[in-house]
């Protein structure tokens, strides 16, 4: 079973996100209250697997969901293997569409400064909110349609 481990947001760009109890994903916008939400953008929402975070923990770093600036931390789904265009359903009707796999890591990244590498460029993904709703830790994720 794939599920959401944490919902995270930050009010300013360039800062780590913090976990919140629940958030509202607004259609064609992103997570309400998050600095990266942007109407019409192809990078409205970022996702990273807990399994990826655990790899970095294995290098001796103390990390929590949101430390890589992801909005949704997932478990049980190999995000980077999902082709662009894949649709996922979360909980009771939220639909996301994968728009980008990875991103260029900027040199100011706190994690990169500490150990010289970061997982977001290869393992993080971005999505657009097709149908919004309230998202919480524990919500199930189902891949609906592959790219």
Short key terms for the protein model shown above:
mainly beta; M1 Pyruvate Kinase, Domain 3; three-stranded antiparallel β-sheet
What does this structure look like?
This protein is mainly beta and 147 residues long. It has a single domain, classed as M1 Pyruvate Kinase, Domain 3 (Beta Barrel). The protein is built from three helices and eleven strands, in the order βββββαβββααβββ. It has helices at 50-57, 110-115, 120-123; strands at residues 2-9, 18-20, 22-26, 30-31, 45-49, 72-75, 87-90, 94-101, 125-131, 133-136, 140-145. Strands 1-6-5-9-8-7-11 form a seven-stranded mixed β-barrel. The protein has a three-stranded antiparallel sheet with strand order 4-3-10, with no helix packed on it. A hairpin with a 3-residue loop joins strand 7 and strand 8 (94-101). The longest helix is centred in the middle third of the chain and has 8 residues, at 50-57.
């Amino acid at each position: 079973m794939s599920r959401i481990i944490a919902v995270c947001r930050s009010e300013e760009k360039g800062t780590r996100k913090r976990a919140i109890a629940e958030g509202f994903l607004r259609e064609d916008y992103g997570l309400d209250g998050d600095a990266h939400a942007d109407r019409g953008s192809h990078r409205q929402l970022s996702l990273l697997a807990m399994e990826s975070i655990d790899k970095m923990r294995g290098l001796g770093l103390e990390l929590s969901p949101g430390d890589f600036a992801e909005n949704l931390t997932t478990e049980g789904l190999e995000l980077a293997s999902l082709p662009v265009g894949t649709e996922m359903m979360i909980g009771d009707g939220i639909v996301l569409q994968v728009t980008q796999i990875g991103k260029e890591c900027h040199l100011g990244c706190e994690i990169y400064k500490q150990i010289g590498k970061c997982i977001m460029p290869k393992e993080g993904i971005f999505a657009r909110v097709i149908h919004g709703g309230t998202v919480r830790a524990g919500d199930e994720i189902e891949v609906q349609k592959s790219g």
